[in-house]
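During the reporting period the student researcher (J.K.) took over the structure-prediction task from the postdoctoral fellow and processed the backlog of single-chain submissions. One of the processed entries is reproduced below for the supervisory committee.
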Amino acid sequence: MELLVVIAIIAILAAVVVLIINPLELTRRARDAARLTDLSNLQQAINVAVQEATASTAAVLCSGEVTPCTGLSNTGTRVSNGTGWVKVNLSLQQSVSVPTLSVDPINDAANHYTYCSDGNAWEINTSLESTQQIDKEGEDGGDDPALYEVGSNLSLITPSGTPCSY
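J.K. obtained the following structure tokens:
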């Protein structure tokens, strides 16, 4: 009888610990932290590339592409020379080193990074999933409260399709 009581107490404690810790939410938070870091690093690298450029802004933001140019992390490559999913040649920079482009931790059709440039400005979007970080989507200054946005023009990627759509 005492053994059954001990087993019941251990089961209750284990259930309480799982409910308090919530391992799924911790996993979501870790993925969101990676997303926020990735986009911050890309934002810094693209801003430096634009500042250091001797070519036109369109040639920098859409390297070898016609404007507007777009890229998706789940379908494009991770090459940082302007042919990857980010159309900026980040491999030539002296101030910031970007050997390969980051991709979303899940990187599927629903969770990926989206790049867009109209030749004058640029934007990268992603979705956040943890309850701790989801508020950042509406507080980033962008036009879509359901996406986390960074860039020089946070209204480039729109559902209406001008000039880049999702």
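The committee noted the following: The longest helix spans residues 23-52.
J.K. will present the remaining backlog at the next meeting.
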